[in-house]
From TrEMBL, chain A:
The keyword Translocase applies. Its main location: membrane. This is NADH-quinone oxidoreductase. It holds the Pfam family Fer4_NDSU1. Its EC number is 7.1.1.-. Residues 87-126 form the 4Fe-4S His(Cys)3-ligated-type domain. NDH-1 shuttles electrons from NADH, via FMN and iron-sulfur (Fe-S) centers, to quinones in the respiratory chain. Couples the redox reaction to proton translocation (for every two electrons transferred, four hydrogen ions are translocated across the cytoplasmic membrane), and thus conserves the redox energy in a proton gradient. Keywords: 2Fe-2S, 4Fe-4S, Iron, Iron-sulfur, Membrane, Metal-binding, NAD, Quinone, Translocase.
UniProtKB/TrEMBL annotation, chain B:
Keywords: 2Fe-2S, Iron, Iron-sulfur, Metal-binding, NAD, Translocase. This is NADH-quinone oxidoreductase subunit NuoE. Residues 251-264 have a biased composition (Basic and acidic residues). CDD domains: TRX_Fd_NuoE (cd03064). GO terms for molecular function: 2 iron, 2 sulfur cluster binding; active transmembrane transporter activity; inorganic cation transmembrane transporter activity; metal ion binding; monoatomic cation transmembrane transporter activity; NADH dehydrogenase activity. Its cofactor is [2Fe-2S] cluster. It holds the Pfam family 2Fe-2S_thioredx. Residues 234-250, 272-284 have a biased composition (Low complexity). One of its GO terms (biological process) is inorganic cation transmembrane transport. It comes from the Bacteria. Residues 234-310 are annotated as: Disordered. It catalyses: a quinone + NADH + 5 H(+)(in) = a quinol + NAD(+) + 4 H(+)(out). Belongs to the complex I 24 kDa subunit family.
């Protein structure tokens, strides 16, 4: 590795590093606007100028100069870089002066104020007056979608947003039209952007040109309480920061987590917060004469206790929903076990995944980071762009890195933002792949690290077990599971699912699964822990514990108001099996309580008091029962995948129908999103119900 | 320069597609680039689309080019708005681009501008009959014929307000017009009499190789001078008493006496003294060259032709 001296400090960095990275490695801070670690290098803002001995005799844009391009001194001394010399300061001040020539003095009314790169760097390199006496440039604001507000006078033409949409999001919506001073960032004829990751340009914009439209003029960054947490909108478990003012969640931002989401989050993750304020269940309700009426906690509990006493234990059941944390699922399992019922399930979509085959049979075994090592990818019944946009961005990143990575899918036609070949519609094609009759089987076989992504679209069908068996056979045939690589990866859509399977929330002996429980006459009493994605037939007495007046609440006979994910501390396990802790950023509204506490209180009324009094005790018991929950942010090493056992599940009759993603509408997958006006607007736009361009 | 936008929706044509001929042409352009780099053909295709659409690029043309090349619409829009030679609004049948950069400005572009405003109307508006529109552009590279305009594909140079007016009259009436200088100049030759490079031998080929003869002659003179000096030295040594005289290393020549001039006057290119030297030393090559020169179409090469061959 070449050596160089940065401000008198000798360091060694890889030759492919840029000077900017080398300076950072040496602890020198380099101001920048256009440079971003995860985007291509543009080198157009010129803010990162440094002085180099052994390089060109002028200030050098450190973001665009490679370490390998520096020359050693005449006697072999390492090249020297200076970041604090008067020449550097003067050069940067010159750049800043030019940037500020056309930048409006908007800071007092700009949403970026307080977290603006330009503002911060002007403190270091700005001058207090302007020598520019001409008119400032004026640029018309553009409509680029319902999520991103533009204020184009402020744009400094760093082109981060353009590079993001074309490189990471893969849609190429944004562009820079015109030239020179008249360059303008816009979408084609001001159509709305069409990416699920579009709002990341808000974070990328170093000035206030692109800001959050729903959050516009709502709060200042220094007023907000910041809580790092985990997203539950999909099973990826993106790291997020929840910014709250008082009891209100004001916005959600991504946090860098290279193992999971890098630094992107989907639009649903970012803008679901307005759904936390509407349709909320803030007090218990009981149904009387067909109408729900507000009730006290005691009354609601008594009503439930009376019903449970009437019902035989095997006529009682419980279904855990998609947003439940591990703690409340654990408490629910303890409670249902105590009642003596085998009817417990966390798989309301009917997926066939089951913990009996080992943990590796239901995880994204390749891991999200592992996608970057895959050399051939096959997707079965999954549309990652809709089910996990951030994970899809990772696949796209791999595709761009590899330059022609073979990617194919079985299922409905889809646009994944990268080139992927559609092999066929359904199980027939899958059978061909297993037999080697299809050409892509060869590609997988030749690949060293083939990645097979199986979606819930395949596994939640009635013939899901057979499809899983087929896929396992394909994995066997292509060597997708070998030493040091497990390419058979299940992509989940529900944040709670892997946790639920880890905790064993599946029917006990003779118990009914979720679909069977929801059928008419199956049960007398059904407890829904935030389960909204299942239709419960009339008949059973339904208790719904959840946050929003959604499908589950409409069907319920008793409603227990719970806490949404920013309002409780809980453990979530993402699709790769990574245990992550979501922290509480705010409090549940009204009489609503944290879910584990509701179950604990209910257990007392049912005569089976749960053995914990606080969250700490609950977590201790949880970790005791399932030690893997003790390793936060890690993927507990599990037993190797018993592929033959999974493959042995094949043989059931296969349905020839086309495989399709379970996520029909990306923006409306859970009760919080369905309560959100922003998500409703995005959904309407995506479905073509709103005009694309502002008229 | 100012912000450039697409033409308003009401004047945009409802559709655009390359004509059969242009589609074939576009296919050839695209085929020039390796697979996956089809987007490189975007500028030629846009240019052709502009021609087909009557001198401007409609929105549908941008979309058509994008579809042909498999690019995003925004990527093609970026290019169409970046290059000012893509007109985004309709132009007249005769689109006058007036050069307004320094040389033309000094030579009266502002007068032409006034003329255009008076005759056609404000910049970038099409005259009522649809015949003309005009725009001021940056340097078109015909500075030695300033001031000038480009009308559609052709340059009209050395203009005065009057000659521009007449030019536009002719164009409007469909009369043939002369491309290039409008004041009688031949391309960018000096106005009036030719004062430089008037020597006709420059053009008859007679000077080809003449320079070599001259150097050979010098060499020979040098050698003779050296021999003379040696002889003189020997004499001096014999005499001892006489001081040595400096040898002239170069034969005296009149300033006006050049091979080219001599050829022009009908004399051999080199004085007679060089003649036998040429045949003795480098005779074949040298004479070949001289003859070669005489065979070129020339007005006055008889003298070399008279010489014996070989």
């Amino acid at each position: 590795m070449p050596k160089l001296i940065v401000d008198g400090k000798e360091i060694e960095v890889p030759a492919e590093h840029t000077l900017l990275q080398a300076c950072e490695a040496a602890g020198a801070e380099i101001p920048r606007f256009c440079f971003h670690e995860r985007l291509s290098i543009a080198g157009n803002c010129r803010m990162c100028l440094v002085e180099v001995k052994g390089g060109p005799p002028k200030p050098v844009a450190s973001c665009a100069m490679g370490v390998r391009d520096l020359r050693p001194g005449p006697n072999g001394e390492p090249p020297e870089v200076f970041t604090r010399t008067p020449m550097v300061k003067k050069a940067r001040e010159g750049v800043m002066e030019f940037l500020l020539i056309n930048h409006p003095l908007d800071c007092p009314i700009c949403d970026q104020g307080g977290e603006c790169d330009l503002q911060d760097q002007a403190m270091a390199y700005g001058v207090d007056t302007s020598r520019f006496h001409e008119n400032k440039r004026a640029v018309e604001d553009k409509y680029i979608g319902p999520l991103v507000k533009t204020s184009m006078n402020r744009c400094i033409h760093c082109t981060r947003c353009v590079r993001f949409t074309s490189e990471v999001a893969g849609v190429g919506d944004l562009g820079a039209i015109g030239r020179g001073e008249d360059m303008e960032i816009t979408t084609y004829l001001e159509h709305a952007m069409a990416s699920e990751l579009q709002a990341n340009v808000i974070d990328l914009c170093p000035v206030g040109a692109l800001t959050s439209k729903p959050y516009a003029f709502k709060a200042r960054p220094w007023e907000l309480t910041k809580t790092e947490s985990v997203d539950v909108m999909d099973a990826v478990g993106s790291a997020i920061r929840i910014d709250a003012r008082g009891r209100e969640v004001m916005r959600i931002l991504p946090v860098i987590n290279d193992d999971v989401n890098e630094e992107w989050i989907s639009d649903k993750t970012r803008f679901v917060w307005d759904g936390l304020k509407t349709q909320r269940l803030d007090r218990p309700y009981v149904r009387e004469g067909g109408q729900l009426r507000p009730a006290s906690w005691g009354e609601a509990f008594q009503r439930i206790a009376a019903k449970v006493k009437e019902a035989a234990p095997d006529r009682v059941g419980a279904i855990a929903g998609d947003l439940a944390a591990a703690e409340e699922m654990f408490a629910l399992k303890l409670l249902i076990d105590a009642l003596g019922s085998p009817n417990l399930d966390c798989r309301q979509d009917g997926t066939v995944l089951h913990p009996e085959l080992g943990r590796a049979s239901y995880l994204f075994n390749a891991t999200i980071v592992g996608i970057e090592e895959a050399d051939a990818i096959l997707m079965v019944g999954s549309n990652p762009r809709r089910e996990a946009p951030v994970l899809n961005a990772r696949i796209r990143k791999r595709w761009r890195m590899a330059g022609g990575l073979p990617i194919a899918y079985v299922g409905e036609q889809m646009d994944l933002t990268y080139r992927a070949e559609r092999l066929g519609a359904g199980t027939q094609t899958l059978g061909d792949l297993v037999n080697g009759a299809h050409g892509f089987a060869d590609v997988l076989r030749k690949a060293e690290r083939p990645l097979i992504i199986v979606g819930q679209g395949a596994l939640s069908r009635p013939d899901g077990a057979a499809i899983l068996g087929l896929v396992a056979k394909l994995a066997q045939a292509t060597g997708a599971v070998n030493d040091g690589w497990n390419g058979l990866s299940i992509l989940h859509t529900a944040a709670a699912r892997v946790g639920g399977l880890d905790l064993g929330l599946v029917p006990g002996e003779g118990g009914l699964d979720a679909r069977a429980m929801a059928e008419a006459g199956a049960l007398d009493m059904l407890f829904l822990l935030g389960a909204d994605e299942i239709d419960v037939a009339p008949g059973a007495f339904v208790v719904y514990q959840g946050t929003h007046g959604d499908r589950g609440a409409h069907r319920a006979d008793v409603i227990l108001p719970g806490a949404a994910y920013p309002e409780k501390s809980g453990l979530f396990v993402n699709t790769e099996g990574r245990v992550q802790r979501a922290d509480r950023a705010t409090f549940p509204p009204g009489d609503a309580r944290e879910d584990w506490a509701i179950l604990r209180a209910l257990s007392e009324h049912l005569g089976h008091r749960l053995p914990f009094d606080d969250l700490g005790a609950l977590r201790r018991q949880l970790v005791e029962a399932k030690p893997l929950f003790g390793a936060i942010d890690e993927i507990a090493p599990g037993e190797p995948l018993d592929l033959p056992a999974v493959a042995a599940r094949a043989g059931d009759t296969l349905d020839v129908a086309q495989l399709a993603s379970p996520v029909d509408d990306f923006y409306l997958t859970n009760p919080i999103a369905r309560a959100s006006a922003i998500m409703a607007e995005c959904s309407a736009l995506a479905r073509g119900n709103l005009p694309l361009a502002a008229e | 320069m100012s912000v450039r936008r697409l033409a308003p929706a009401e004047i945009q044509p409802p559709s655009f597609a390359f004509s059969a001929e242009n589609a074939v042409w576009a296919g050839h352009q695209i085929a020039k680039y390796p697979d996956g780099r089809q987007a490189s053909a975007v500028i030629p295709l846009l240019w052709r689309a502009q021609k087909q659409a009557g001198g401007w690029v409609p929105q549908k043309a941008i979309e058509h080019v994008a579809e042909v090349l498999g690019m995003g619409y925004i990527r093609v829009l970026e290019i169409a708005t970046f290059y000012t030679m893509f007109n985004l609004v309709p132009v007249g049948r005769h689109f006058v681009q007036l050069c307004g950069t320094t040389p033309c400005m000094l030579r009266g572009a502002q007068e032409l501008r006034k003329q255009l405003v008076g005759r056609i109307g404000p910049e970038k508006t099409v005259s009522a009959d649809g015949e003309f529109s005009w725009a001021e552009v940056e340097c078109l590279g015909a500075c030695c014929n300033a001031p000038m305009v480009q009308i559609n594909d052709d340059f009209y140079e050395d203009l005065t307000p009057e000659s521009l007016d007449k030019l536009l009259d002719d164009l409007a009436a469909g009369r043939p017009v002369k491309i290039g200088p409008q004041n009688g100049r031949v391309s960018s030759e000096p106005e009036g009499a030719v004062t430089t490079l008037t020597d006709s031998t420059l053009y008859d080929g007679s000077v080809v190789g003449a320079w070599r003869t001259r150097f050979e002659q010098e060499e020979k003179a040098k050698a003779e001078a050296a021999a003379a000096a040696a002889a003189a030295q020997a004499e001096a040594e014999a005499a001892k008493a006489q001081p040595a005289t400096p040898a002239t290393t170069r034969p005296e020549q009149k300033a006006s006496d050049s091979p080219a001039k001599r050829v022009a006057e009908g004399l051999p290119p080199v004085p007679a003294a060089a003649d036998h030297a040429a045949s003795a030393a480098t005779a074949p090559e040298q004479q070949e060259r001289v003859r070669g020169g005489s065979e070129a179409p020339a007005t006055d090469a008889g003298n070399t032709g008279d010489k014996p061959k070989g």
